[in-house]
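Re: the 443-residue chain
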Amino acid sequence: MLNETHDPRQRSWVASANAPQADFPIQNLPFALFRRAGSPEALRCGVAIGDEIIDLLAALQGDALGADPDTTRLVTAALAPDTAGPALNGLMAAGPQLWSALRHSLWRALREGAAQQPALTHCLVARAQAQYALPARIGDYTDFYASIHHATAVGRLFRPDSPLLPNYKWVPIGYHGRSSSIAVSGQQFARPVGQTHPAGAAAPTLGPSQRIDYELELGVFIGAGNAPGSRIGIDDAEGHVFGLCLLNDWSARDLQAWESAPLGPFLAKNFATTISPWIVTLEALQPYRLPWTRDAQDPQPLPYLDSPVLRRAGAIDIELEVALETQAMRHQGSPPAQLSRSNFKYAYWNVAQLVAHHTVNGCNLQPGDLLGTGTQSGPQPREAGSLLELTHGGKQPLTLPNGEVRTFLEDGDSVILRGWCTRAGAARIGFGEAVGRVLPARE
């Protein structure tokens, strides 16, 4: 439901938060784990406002937010580092009531004219001076396949007469990924080495992948989990979601083609995954809700994946963009080239359905677990969320504005994911960026 924190007329005393294209106005207030770049400071929870970051624990301990005593006590306890070190898992586990109470306290303290301004000013750190870490200890990572447009386009490359497998419209398809290779924006990784089987060859060979690709996704951070053997119902599912981030699930398409049968991707997917540092809460995304629909000609979801609440507002209008910065562009000082634009509203399976399906067999999710939505492609060719689709499997190379040509990524290429929400009668909010770069394979 909408509340005062969504009021598009509200401005902040942090002037940069009021810029028309700001990702982090007072209506957003996303969370990250940060410290000053190059400093020995401990990592800690920050909240973005304009070009600044609120050091949340410092603000709470100094009573700079003016939050009620219960909220201050509970959030302070949730943010206290445990034996595993600083992370937002404790806050994620605290549940939606506390998240909302904290958000309201931050909003009130950051409003134009707020009495908390003098005290809270001392708790600000410039975003330009910050470095980020993974916001949570990610115990498990599951990647889904929630875009029918992506599934159809990729399926058509390999099965032109029957691009979708029979189960796709019935069940949210997913696979378990590798949490140890997830890193925050700025990740650089060596081109992976593995087996490929060139067409016509008698045997596979071992070598660097020649078909490195990106995947434009959103990440879903789990908040409070569920007990082993229990299920999370469809109408309760979003109460178990702390928020969303951008996610790039890098893929080695040539390794993937050889290894995926019969058990699915392995080395083609586990070498790197890049996420944006900022987690945007579901409460901040409320103004951008849309009805979730399923074509009348398609199978309708089984009851555990369907509800009137989901039908009324289960989709979210999030604009998504991919840009490419080649090594030559960096040397020339040229801007990155936009490759595609898409939108999360096109997803065939939504956030609540992914959570409900993940737990229907009794699987226990835990605070900090990460779900990927799968590549978010739209219905038009220019809305493809991967090079595999944009180049039709490498058969139609792309020519970039500076004359360079790409079928798949080359060493030195950086991929930049961006996301934002806009709607008449609501403030624009953004996700920041998720940036990753391909380096040469190691000897």
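Residues 4-133 form a domain with the SH3 type barrels. fold (CATH 2.30.30.230).
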